[in-house]
Amino acid sequence: MGKLVVLTLLGAGLALIGERFVKLRQRTNAFREVEPVEPHNCHLIEGVENGSEDIDILPSGLAFISSGLKYPGMPSFAPDEPGQIFMMDLNEQNPRVQALAISDGFDKASFNPHGISTFIDKDHTVYLYVVNHPHMESTVEVFKFEEQQRSLVHLKTIEHELLKSVNDIVVLGPEQFYATRDHYFTNFLSLLEVIMELHWTYVLFYSPSKVNVVARGFISANGITISPDKKYIYVADVADKNIHVMKIHANWDLTRLKVVQLDTLVDNLTVDPDTGDVLAGCHPNAMKLILYNPEDPPGSEVLRIQNVLSEKPRISTEYANNGSVLQASTVASVYKRKLLIGTIYHKALYCEL
Ligand SMILES: *[C@@H]1O[C@H](CO)[C@@H](O)[C@H](O)[C@H]1NC(C)=O
Ligand SMILES: *[C@@H]1O[C@H](CO)[C@@H](O)[C@H](O)[C@H]1NC(C)=O
Ligand SMILES: *[C@@H]1O[C@H](CO)[C@@H](O)[C@H](O)[C@H]1NC(C)=O
Ligand SMILES: [Ca+2]
Ligand SMILES: [Ca+2]
To answer: What pLDDT score does 1 carry?
Structure first.
């Protein structure tokens, strides 16, 4: 009798593992191949080779690019080099990148930049907020941008017990931001969250006087951005392959209005300032992303979502590549029909639309 129970439990256990494994293959789009879509005028950006995880463009056309992310479970082509912030002026005929100098007094050796967000104060000062993972911790670094010197002056490091496993932020005001947490566990158990589809990650509101969770129920909350009218927040759940549209209340709480389901793993989100369309940097096949094989590399995909607030948002493919040109896209940002596409650990692409 005892043996029968053990065998039954073993069988049930194996069935569960098998079911979870099949689910994980589906969830990561392990079988998906990419059909190429490319605007006419695209070229790789010289000088960006080791990632361009996040991109934020100022209304003036100056683009900030976060580069050199080292992230648990992801390959890095430059594991021993600190991360950098690049700048590109999209008003130039042939824009080139330039690494921004960072002021002394900041630990540049452990700089590991992830999501970024810019904020322009009433006096026109530009601040760059950077999610940083020094020694795999999570902090938010506040820099002042000096346009003449092309440099970043470090002002402050923000840390908080709820600011763990931070992926991206969107700045709302001086020292006020929403941040996404992409994992609940900070150790090997984080793999379990995706396998078991635990919806345990969240969006956090941070201000010096108040810090609280404003939205829950994501398997892995990733990119976050705000609508041009500042009324809505868009949050990408990379593991659930969807985008959550949320309304912002006066007290900064969020209410979920809708979820736009996609067949790709959405990483970062930006908004086209001219149209209000949401641009999503996506991973078509996450298995290839994690089990990196240079012979069969992960591809890239950028989706444009028009009328995201309407009943039937229109979804089109702005760019898609099987990895022969661009691998592991995370973000796409547009300025006056110029498109920049960033990646976790690979290059960056510039296109004219
Ligand atoms: C990328 O990383 C490699 C290896 O560390 C390094 O040799 C190269 O200079 C880096 N390239 C850039 C553009 O940072
Ligand atoms: C883009 O996605 C990557 C990978 O998850 C993340 O590290 C980065 O912060 C994201 N960038 C933006 C612009 O949200
Ligand atoms: C990717 O596409 C290119 C051209 O479309 C093709 O030559 C190449 O074999 C493809 N690579 C893979 C890994 O499928
Ligand atoms: Ca961002
Ligand atoms: Ca992200």
So the answer is: 55
